[in-house]
Write a structure and sequence with these properties.
With 101 residues, the protein is an alpha+beta fold. The protein has a single domain, classed as Glutaredoxin. The chain has four helices and four strands; from the N terminus they run βαβαββαα. The protein has helices spanning 10-22, 43-46, 68-75, 82-85; strands spanning 2-5, 29-32, 56-58, 64-66. It has a four-stranded mixed β-sheet, covered by helices on one side. Helix 1 runs parallel beside helix 3 (68-75). The longest helix is centred in the N-terminal third of the chain and has 13 residues, at 10-22.
């Protein structure tokens, strides 16, 4: 799992805090997006997230998920997050669906 972001910016920080709380920091590769150079407005990044914002979660199957709320929800389903979500929670149904709600 990868997180495309830039250190120190508020929305990426939300994800980094959530991952740290869940003990998932070592399962994530962070890919720096050069916001000052407008890398997030280039076609290559817009293909990952059409809103042109960070953070973006990239799952191992190649799915990209934007929006902090959707990303934190998605990372709840990582195997080591069971303690955070509870053992009897509902199963994941539609990956990334909460990006658009
Ligand atoms: N609603 C988005 C907001 C993300 C956002 O605004 N990120 C800022 C960085 S803190 C960004 O990418 N700004 C660059 C831009 O809008 O061009 C989320 O929750 O992830």
């Amino acid at each position: 799992m990868k997180i495309h972001d830039i250190p120190g910016f508020p929305n990426p920080l939300r994800i980094r805090i959530a991952l740290a709380e869940k003990g998932l920091g070592d399962q994530v590769e962070f890919v720096k997006v050069d916001l000052p150079a407008a890398e997030n407005r280039q076609a290559a990044f817009l293909a990952k997230n059409p809103t042109g914002t960070v953070p973006v979660l990239e799952l191992d199957d190649g799915l990209f998920i934007g929006e902090c709320t959707a990303i934190t929800s998605e990372t709840c389903w990582a195997p080591r997050s069971a303690a955070m979500r509870g053992a009897t929670s509902l199963p994941k149904v539609v990956p990334g669906a909460s990006t658009w709600v």
